[in-house]
Write a structure and sequence with these properties.
By secondary structure, the protein is mostly beta strands. The chain has one domain: Immunoglobulin-like (Sandwich), CATH 2.60.40.2550. The chain is built from one helix and ten strands. Strands 1, 2, 3, 4, 5, 6, 7, 8, 9 and 10 form a ten-stranded mixed β-sheet that branches. It starts with 11 loop residues before the first helix and ends with a strand.
Length: about 170
């Protein structure tokens, strides 16, 4: 992991103070407006299998599985310490799909800046059709401090050599 660059003209101590102040303000906002009861928990695994995935879909993390479409939106969730997160589910199609696969998620703003990036090994569960496997919600922690409302971004998702991009609009709760 690469260390973040310092803000020009500030010491490390000043930056830590700004970060603590920002987190405290975000926590107060959460408490004042109502913190979410419980955020989805990632279903992590460690025995990653060799995946032969031909196609993937990304969908909403809250309602069954609804693939993201051309005008999809996702709602930002704030954790107890004020961190902004998005949650998605991933569905994989292919001939050989183990129960544990590594997923890469990267969210890029319309200006080309990386807003979030993660690579995580998670469990996938066979769907009723037997033709695909779907993850439980995956967490994507946003860099920076909002507001994010109305921002559009590209979500790049990859499992092995299968990849897809989806345009999403971020909404505040």
């Amino acid at each position: 992991m690469e260390a973040p660059e310092r803000l020009p003209g500030t010491s490390l101590a000043e930056q830590l103070h700004m970060l603590r102040t920002s987190l405290a303000l975000a926590a107060m906002l959460c408490l004042a407006s109502g913190c979410p009861e419980q955020l989805p928990q990632q279903d992590l695994c460690s025995a990653v299998g060799e995946a032969q995935v031909s196609r993937i879909e990304v969908g909403d993390a809250y309602e069954g599985f609804m693939p993201l479409g051309p005008e999809s939106f996702t709602e930002v969730q704030y954790g107890a310490q004020g961190g902004a997160m998005l949650f998605f589910k991933v569905r994989a199609f292919g001939t050989q799909m183990p129960t544990c696969m590594t997923v890469q998620l990267r969210l890029t703003s319309d200006e080309g800046e990386t807003m979030a990036n993660t690579e995580v090994a998670v469990n996938f569960y066979e769907d009723q059709s037997g033709m695909s496997r779907t993850s439980r919600p995956l967490q994507l922690t946003l860099y920076g401090i909002g507001p994010f409302d109305g921002q559009t971004a590209t979500l790049h998702t990859q499992i092995g050599s299968a990849a897809m991009d989806a345009e999403v609009t971020i909404r505040e709760p």
